[in-house]
Design brief:
Layout: H1 4-18, E1 31-37, E2 41-55, E3 58-62, E4 67-72, E5 79-80, E6 85-89, H2 92-127, H3 133-165, E7 168-170, E8 175-177, E9 187-188, E10 196-201, E11 205-212, H4 214-220, H5 224-227, E12 231-235, E13 246-251, E14 262-269, E15 280-297, E16 302-304, E17 307-313, E18 319-323, E19 325-330, E20 333-338, E21 345-347, E22 360-363
Parallel strand pairs: 1-22
Antiparallel strand pairs: 1-21, 2-11, 2-15, 3-10, 4-6, 4-9, 5-8, 6-7, 8-10, 11-14, 12-13, 12-15, 13-14, 15-20, 16-17, 17-18, 19-20
Helix pairs in contact: 2-3
Length: about 375
C-alpha cells in the first residue's frame, strides 16, 4: 500500500492540472463588415396597399316589362356598343296593347272635336241671345273634359309605345357583356330576381380602390388636395408595374370607421384589358418628396427597444446604433426619412454578431 500511494497522488495531480479552466482566447480583431455610404437628398415616398379593381361604369341590364324571353342577341364576354340589342322579349301582347291605345286615342280625338264644335256653336247662339248662358257654359265644360280625355288617351299610347320598346333590351354603354342569367323561353318580370339578365362593364377604363392608414396618408400627402392627381401603380406578382400609371381622382373626406383607414380611388386606362373588374391587386401609391432622406437595403434595419435602428461605422471604427424613421419599403429597399446624416456608413451584414461599440473594419459591399 505504501508503494502505490505516491503513484496515486501523482496521477491525481496530473488529472487536476488537465481539468483546469482553458486559457483565455486571444482578443479578436475588428469585424469585417460591408457598408454603404448614404447621400441625403429629396426622395419620392410611396406606400403599398391592397386594392380592388372596379369598372368605371358597371350597368345591370334588367327587364322593364313582363314577358317571355324570345332571343339572346349577344356573345357572352364579347364587346358591345351602346344601343346594341342584347335580349328580345315577345312583343305580341305589347303590339296589341299599342293598337288598342291608338284606337282609343282616335275615339277621344273625335269626341273632343265634336265637343269643341258644340261649345263654339252655343257661344254664337249666346251672343245672338238664342241660347241660355248655362247651356253655353255646359258645352264649354264638356269640350274641356273631352280634351282631357283625349290627352289621357295620348299618354296611354305613349306608355304602350314605351312598353313595346322595352321588349328590345339594348346595351346602355360600350363595354363587355357578362354571362346571360336567363335563357330563351324564360318568363322575366321587372323588379324581381328574374328581371336581371346580364351586366355590361366598361373595361377600357377602370377604378382601383384602396386604403391608407392615417399615418401613411399623412406621410405621403399634405391633405386631400395634394393627393388629387397623385400617381398610383398596380404591381404584379413579381413586384413589377402592370400597365400605365393611374391618377388619384377621389379621397374620402374622413376615416372609414369600419376599415380604420382613408379610402382612395385611382383611375386607370385599361385598353388592353389587363385589369379585370372585381380583381384584387396590390398598389403602390406615390407621395410627396421627402427632403433629407435616403434609401437603404431593408436587411440593414434591426429592431431595438428604442425602435427601428441601423448600425453605422463611425469615425473611430466602431459600430454605432442610430434610431431611424422608416417610410415605405419595396423591392428590398427601405426609405429612411430621418436619423441618418450625409456620409454615414451603414453596416449591411454581420448584424447578429455586432453590438454598439464593437470594433469594425468597413469594406465596400460585393458587386452583384
Amino acid at each position: 500500500m505504501s508503494r502505490r500511494a505516491p503513484l496515486s497522488l501523482g496521477a491525481l495531480a496530473l488529472c487536476l492540472a488537465g481539468c483546469g479552466e482553458p486559457p483565455a482566447a486571444p482578443p479578436q480583431g475588428p469585424v469585417q463588415v460591408s457598408v454603404m455610404t448614404v447621400a441625403l437628398g429629396e426622395l419620392g415616398q410611396s406606400a403599398l396597399a391592397p386594392g380592388q379593381v372596379e369598372g368605371v361604369r358597371e350597368v345591370e341590364v334588367r327587364a322593364r316589362v313582363t314577358g317571355i324571353l324570345q332571343a339572346v342577341d349577344y356573345r357572352e364576354g364579347g364587346r358591345v356598343k351602346a344601343g346594341d340589342i342584347l335580349f328580345r322579349i315577345d312583343p305580341a301582347p305589347y303590339e296589341a296593347a299599342l293598337a288598342l291605345a291608338k284606337a282609343q286615342l282616335r275615339q277621344e280625338e273625335a269626341r273632343s272635336t265634336q265637343a269643341r264644335a258644340e261649345a263654339a256653336r252655343l257661344e254664337r247662339l249666346l251672343a245672338a241671345k238664342a241660347a241660355g248662358r248655362k247651356e253655353a257654359e255646359d258645352a264649354l265644360a264638356a269640350a274641356l273634359a273631352a280634351e282631357a280625355s283625349r290627352d289621357a288617351a295620348a299618354a296611354r299610347v305613349r306608355m304602350a309605345e314605351l312598353d313595346l320598346g322595352y321588349c328590345e333590351l339594348r346595351s346602355p354603354i360600350d363595354g363587355v357583356a357578362g354571362r346571360r342569367l336567363r335563357t330563351e323561353g324564360a318568363l322575366v318580370t321587372p323588379g324581381g330576381p328574374d328581371g336581371l339578365l346580364t351586366t355590361v362593364v366598361q373595361s377600357d377604363e377602370v377604378w382601383v380602390r384602396f386604403g391608407l392608414s392615417e399615418a401613411e396618408f399623412a406621410r405621403l400627402y399634405k391633405g386631400a388636395a395634394s393627393a388629387a392627381g397623385a400617381e398610383v401603380r398596380v404591381l404584379g406578382a413579381d413586384g413589377a408595374p402592370v400597365g400605365a400609371a393611374g391618377k388619384v381622382d377621389f379621397v374620402a373626406p374622413g376615416v372609414d370607421t369600419r376599415l380604420g383607414n382613408i379610402q382612395i380611388r385611382a383611375r386607370f386606362a385599361n385598353a388592353g384589358g389587363a385589369l379585370l373588374p372585381g380583381q384584387f391587386v396590390r398598389v403602390r401609391a406615390e407621395g410627396l418628396k421627402a427632403p433629407g432622406a435616403c434609401r437603404i437595403p431593408e436587411v440593414a434595419l434591426v429592431q431595438t427597444p428604442a425602435g427601428r435602428s441601423v448600425l453605422v461605422a463611425n469615425a473611430e471604427g466602431k459600430a454605432e446604433a442610430r434610431v431611424v424613421t422608416v417610410g415605405g419599403a419595396s423591392g428590398g429597399q427601405a426609405d429612411i426619412l430621418a436619423g441618418l446624416r450625409d456620409g454615414d456608413r451603414v453596416i449591411l451584414d454581420q448584424l447578429q454578431r455586432l453590438r454598439p461599440g464593437a470594433a469594425v473594419a468597413p469594406r465596400a459591399p460585393a458587386a452583384k
